[in-house]
Design a protein that fits this description.
The structure holds 2 protein chains of 2 kinds. By secondary structure, chain A is an alpha/beta fold. In chain A, about 45% of the residues lie in helices and about 10% in strands. Chain A has a 5-stranded mixed sheet with strand order 10-9-13-11-12, with helices on both faces. Chain A has a 4-stranded mixed sheet with strand order 2-1-3-4. In chain A, strands 7-6-5-8 form a 4-stranded parallel sheet, with helices on both faces. Chain A starts with 11 loop residues before the first helix and ends in a 9-residue tail after the last helix. Classes of the chains: A alpha/beta, B alpha+beta. Bound molecules: flavin mononucleotide (FMN), iron/sulfur cluster (3 copies) and FE2/S2 (inorganic) cluster (2 copies).
């Protein structure tokens, strides 16, 4: 194929940015997204000249590269101010005045260097309303902030804007520089149980320095891996199957079975840590990556050893700068310690880990979309079968697991699968993280043993604010289902939620009191799916549009053919989206709305 | 491409110059080898046997069950995007696309259940409420067969001129008064063919034909996300500034008339396109020694369309710019810059 390159040539700055990004990773197609990020980070958007240079270096046809660049919402394709404040207006932040916050931040930033953009959930829900400042330049800055104080946001954006211009050496420091006191406060806010004895998944959070291998080792880090290397791959699979551990990413597939399938498939095999966490209201994986990155690498290494994978990828969503930095630093430190690399702990097992960064696309959390994204293609899910265990990343057998899934693995291997299986209930073993946010006194990530009820979880988080009553809880985020105040005794287990016709999904628990505007929340969910559909299949691409339109009519009291006909239309649409869509996004895009109709009596009379 | 490519880089080292080029991985391979035993499955209760590697769609056809398809095309890799072909397979949580799912021994396929009918109907309605399908061959019949009434979603929204500039993750919240559509201005930027994306169902066929399934030119791709996804050149530049070589292989596979030869487009626009007055003549392209099969559609003594039969083993329906559009010299009337 001859490349036909048209348009303006790259500037020196664009050329240097792209060449710098390609200096380490090679010039395969899988370097496309990293190269596009380099342009975005350096010049604030993907420019015509810059994209042309990317195509020339990677030998990618320009139309395809443009198709990929235009898929991600963190990549801009037209010039704009180099500093952008992404203000979350998603479900949790709406419960905390996101609309007013967006307006106030816009006012405060007017006349300043930064521009404001709305964003879906940033995974900072414990700080709602939240924002993420991204400043492009020689030293690109990324700073998550609370957005309640608009003036402070505008000031931080202005600081980021000037810092982004500074010499590149300051780049890494900006993110990590934080006083120990402030760090602890931030961690306690994200995980209010931090420091409580008896925790398994959050054991190190707030207690152990996430940047220190020595501290991690001193707190038992690496014991699981040593035990695994002694057990042998089949032994590890046996323990993990015995533990009953199932995936925490939403599909609840047994982890050990997945590894066993990959181990039986031909080499080379790959492993992916799915850290794309973009389900609205979910931020547990962020906390694990920020506060216990070595444990995740340990879990990955054990899984890779068990399944015979030689390469591992950590795919972190683009909105998680600190999590990505921590994972990158931990991987570098672990390699120095011989925990990763050609000869893991002298066992002869070779495992390398690379950290990849998402570009802003919820759908890239879907496992096969994620693989396409790493491969430098559009993040479109693939039809299954074949499953990733047969043909995954680069067409090879691939293990892909959620962050929380692999976080449990070192504990399981060290203490034995039977010990994990004894925790929780018969159908749901072990400990589980829930991201609790919205109208609760102490939002945050909570660890409970399976079996706890919704009531107990809400009590842990301090319940709804005094003087308010509970209106609804959205279980599992935008792709989940609403339950009402009558469902508080629902056991938060796989079997318990299944029996009730709902699901745990990503473990998001979004709480709304009687001040919430249900119609507004449903409209936000509909907007979310309309924005995040990859656009590949008709039921989802057009169905999400029709769903949002029907909802707008219902809210405005102008239903087509009467309320009942409109509700019937919504349900029929939901049925087709569920049955005929390629992936879980389209299959669940109508779930929240349908549960609001049947469980909360939305639109049953007058207003929702 | 940095791998060795016998067309652009001359013969690979050690190869005889007339070695055939390796087949691109996505080009459909030879028919499944008869060595593998056939697969027995049931379709709507009828037992059928298909060769190993065949799809559920193949099995439906063997069983004589009519299955609607839109994105599927015999010469292209299935992308299973349109979902009009979905069927129910016993044990599967959701419906499965017949066009891409491999037939498996013992599979129980049902094509006429309430779930299948509901999904096919809604999918057709979603398509027809957002895309102009008026000249898409066979669509009216399929819609009638499933009782699809796209008007259920409200009156269609008018043309939008900004579709090429839409940003992923952002859109204007609708008020529901009109059903959003892909209606947009026609792109007529060259003498060979016209792109009317108001008629585009995003079946990916043109992208595949331009890419590894046939042409290997990669002039077009899918850009954007969700409902704003669209077929585009880089930066939505005109075709004349793209890699396009005007082979028209994308036009040949487009199922809706979104891509159309300029002659046909102009005749239709003038109300002068009249299949009643047309004849079809099969011949061989006289330009080069390959000898591609050609079907020439002639109206009023002029060639108004050139195509190659999908079943022709040399072309599999593909041609080059000369065979597809280079007919000005045999036409009566003005010649300069004439496309057929
Ligand atoms: C639209 C969509 C988004 C998803 N997002 C995530 C995600 O952000 N993180 C995740 O771990 N799994 C996500 N999943 C689930 C993955 O596809 C996959 O099931 C999971 O990563 C497997 O890991 P597990 O078995 O450990 O749960 C998503 C699925 C869908 C359909
Ligand atoms: S269901 Fe939606 S997100 Fe999934 S493949 Fe289809 S269009 Fe893409
Ligand atoms: S005419 Fe040929 S080269 Fe041009 S876009 Fe169509 S298939 Fe590609
Ligand atoms: S232009 Fe035609 S072939 Fe291409 S995606 Fe649209 S409908 Fe399909
Ligand atoms: S950060 Fe706003 S909803 Fe999660
Ligand atoms: S024809 Fe099967 S999905 Fe389009």
């Amino acid at each position: 194929m001859d490349l036909r390159l048209t348009g303006p040539p790259p500037s020196e700055v664009e050329r240097a940015a792209v060449d710098g990004a390609l200096a380490t990773g090679g010039t395969g197609r899988d370097q496309l997204l990293p190269a596009l990020h380099a342009l975005q980070d350096r010049v604030g958007f993907v420019s015509e000249g810059g994209l042309r240079h990317v195509c020339e270096r990677l030998r990618v046809p320009p139309a395809e590269a443009y198709g990929v660049a235009s898929f991600y919402h963190l990549l801009a394709l037209a010039p704009r101010p180099r500093t952008v404040v992404h203000v979350c207006d998603d479900l949790v932040c709406r419960a905390h005045g996101a609309e007013a916050a967006v307006a106030a931040v816009e006012r405060a930033c007017a006349g300043g260097p930064a521009t404001v953009a709305r964003s879906p959930c940033l995974g900072l829900c414990e700080r709602a309303p939240a924002a993420l400042i991204l400043a492009a330049g020689a030293s690109p800055c990324a700073e998550p902030v609370g957005a309640a104080d608009a003036r402070a946001v505008a000031d931080a954006a202005a600081r980021a804007d000037s810092a982004a211009e500074a010499a590149p050496s300051r780049r890494a420091r900006r993110l990590a520089k934080e006083k120990p006191g402030a760090r602890l406060e931030r961690v306690r806010r994200a995980a209010p149980q931090a420091g409580t004895p008896g925790l398994r998944l959050l054991a190190r959070v707030g207690r152990v320095d996430p940047e220190s291998v020595a501290d991690w080792k001193a707190s038992g880090g690496g014991e699981g891996l040593r035990k695994a290397l002694a057990l042998g791959p089949a032994g590890v699979v046996r323990e993990v199957i015995a533990s009953g551990l199932v995936g925490r990413g939403g599909a609840a597939f047994p982890a050990g079975k997945k590894w066993e399938a990959v181990a039986a498939a031909p080499a080379p095999r790959h492993l992916i840590l799915n850290a794309d966490e973009s389900e609205p209201g979910t931020f547990k994986d962020r906390v694990l990556m920020e506060e216990d990155p070595f444990a995740l690498l340990e879990g990955m290494t054990i899984a890779a050893y068990a399944a015979g994978c030689g390469r591992g990828y950590v795919y972190v969503r683009g909105e998680y700068p600190l999590a990505r930095l921590r994972m990158e630093r931990a991987a570098a430190a672990a390699r120095k310690e011989g925990l990763l690399g050609p000869d893991v702990l002298g066992s002869g097992f070779s495992f390398e880990v690379e950290v990849r960064r998402g570009g802003g696309a919820y759908i890239c959390g879907e496992e096969t979309a994620l693989m396409n994204s790493i491969e430098g293609k559009r993040g479109e899910p693939r039809q299954k079968p074949p499953f990733p265990t047969q043909a995954g990343l680069f067409g090879r057998p691939t293990v892909i697991n959620n962050v929380e899934t692999l976080a449990a693995v070192p504990w399981i291997v060290r203490d034995g699968g039977a010990a994990w299986a004894r925790i929780g209930t018969k159908g749901s073993s072990g400990a589980k993280l829930f991201s609790v946010a919205g109208h609760v006194a102490r939002p945050g990530v909570y660890e409970v043993e399976f079996g706890a009820t919704l009531r107990q979880l809400l009590a842990l988080a301090g319940g709804v604010p005094a003087g308010r009553s509970l209106r609804a809880v959205l279980l599992g985020g935008a792709a989940g289902s609403f339950v009402g105040p009558g469902d508080l005794d629902l056991p938060l287990t796989f079997e318990g939620t299944r029996a009730a016709g709902v699901g745990l999904g990503s473990g998001a628990v979004i709480v709304f009191d009687d001040s919430a505007d249900l119609g507004d929340l449903l409209a936000r969910v509909a907007r979310f799916f309309r924005d995040e559909s990859c656009g590949q299949c008709v039921p989802c691409r057009v169905g999400t549009v029709r769903q949002e339109e029907a909802l707008a009519r219902l809210r405005a009291g102008r239903p087509l053919g009467g309320r009942e006909a409109e509700v019937a239309l919504v349900r029929e649409l939901g049925q087709a989206m569920h049955d005929a869509s390629i992936c879980g996004l389209g299959q669940t895009a109508s779930s929240a709305l349908e549960s609001a109709l049947s469980r909360l009596g939305a639109f049953s009379g007058g207003t929702p | 491409m940095n791998r060795s490519d016998p067309w652009s880089g001359g013969p690979a080292e050690g190869a005889v110059w007339f070695d055939p080029p390796p087949r691109a991985a996505k080009v459909p391979g030879p028919p499944p080898s008869p060595a593998r035993p056939p697969v027995a499955l049931s379709v709507d209760g009828r037992e059928v046997r298909v060769p190993a590697g065949a799809t559920v769609l193949d099995a439906c056809r063997v069983a004589g069950v009519e299955t609607p398809t839109l994105c599927f095309h015999e010469t292209l890799t299935p992308v299973n995007a349109c979902r009009v072909c979905v069927v129910e397979v016993a044990g599967a949580r959701t419906l499965v696309p017949a066009c891409s799912r491999q037939a498996e021994a013992g599979m129980q396929v049902k094509t006429d259940t309430p779930r299948v009918r509901c999904s096919r109907k809604v999918v057709l309605e979603l398509l027809a409420s957002s895309v102009d399908l008026r000249i898409a061959p066979g669509m009216a019949e399929t819609m009638a067969r499933y009782g699809a009434s796209p008007g259920r979603f409200g009156p269609p929204a008018p043309d939008a001129a900004d579709r090429d500039a839409r940003e992923a993750g952002h859109h204007h919240a609708p008020d529901g008064a009109a059903a959003e559509t892909v209606a947009q201005p026609v792109k007529a930027d060259n003498d060979c063919y016209v792109r009317d994306y108001s008629k585009c169902v995003l079946c990916y066929r043109c992208v595949e034909a331009c890419g590894t399934d046939a042409q290997n030119t990669f002039a077009i791709a899918v850009a954007g996300r969700g409902f704003d996804a669209r077929i585009s050149t880089e930066w939505a530049r005109p075709l004349t500034d793209s890699a396009c070589v005007y082979c028209g292989n994308c036009v040949a596979v487009c199922p809706t008339g979104a891509l159309m030869g300029k002659t046909e487009h102009d005749l239709r626009a003038a109300g002068a396109w009249d299949p009643e007055r047309q004849t079809c003549t099969d011949t061989i392209c006289p330009y080069c020694g390959v000898g591609c099969s050609l079907s020439l559609t002639v109206q009023d003594g002029r060639i108004v369309r050139a195509a190659s039969p999908v079943g022709a083993d040399i072309t599999r329906g593909n041609l080059c710019i000369k065979g597809r559009f280079g007919w000005g010299h045999v036409q009566p009337g003005p010649r300069a810059g004439d496309a057929p």
